[in-house]
């Protein structure tokens, strides 16, 4: 249903001549999210199992706002853009290991698991194995996405209660 409602929204917006649709993935902002969960686990001495066979890029809400401002203020052509942070495509496990490193924990304490093993016996929504979006169209407007791990280091430096 989630994908169907997104597609319906895209179709509805596309009927308006002047529009921007921003597609994103793995959004990190205020409140509970994957990065804060890993940071909390690192602080509590927990060694989690994290999926290593799904890859993509994080999108910090600050970067999504920055991309939106850029498109509007630069007069970029209307249309659909992928907007995520930049840098290499990574797995959830690689992200968790980086959070552990930033938190002063051994990244090796994050144990790898597969999507199949993690989901065994759970009623989880299906997730794509590859979620990385091409940023070429957004970059062609003069926007250079900030590296996701640089943004994550800054994000993790704020206290857990502030995000």
Produce the secondary structure layout:
Blueprint: H1 2-14, E1 20-23, E2 27-28, H2 34-43, E3 49-51, E4 55-56, E5 59-60, H3 61-74, E6 79-82, E7 90-91, H4 92-102, E8 111-113, H5 115-119, H6 136-139, H7 148-157
Parallel strand pairs: 1-6, 2-5, 3-8
Antiparallel strand pairs: 4-7
Helix pairs in contact: 2-4, 4-7
Plain-language structure description:
By secondary structure, this protein is of the alpha/beta class. It has a single domain, classed as NAD(P)-binding Rossmann-like Domain (Rossmann fold). Helices cover 41% and strands 13% of the residues. It is built from 7 helices and 8 strands, in the order H-E-E-H-E-E-E-H-E-E-H-E-H-H-H. Strands 1-6 form a two-stranded parallel sheet. The longest helix has 14 residues, at 61-74. It is globular. It starts with a helix and ends in a 6-residue tail after the last helix.
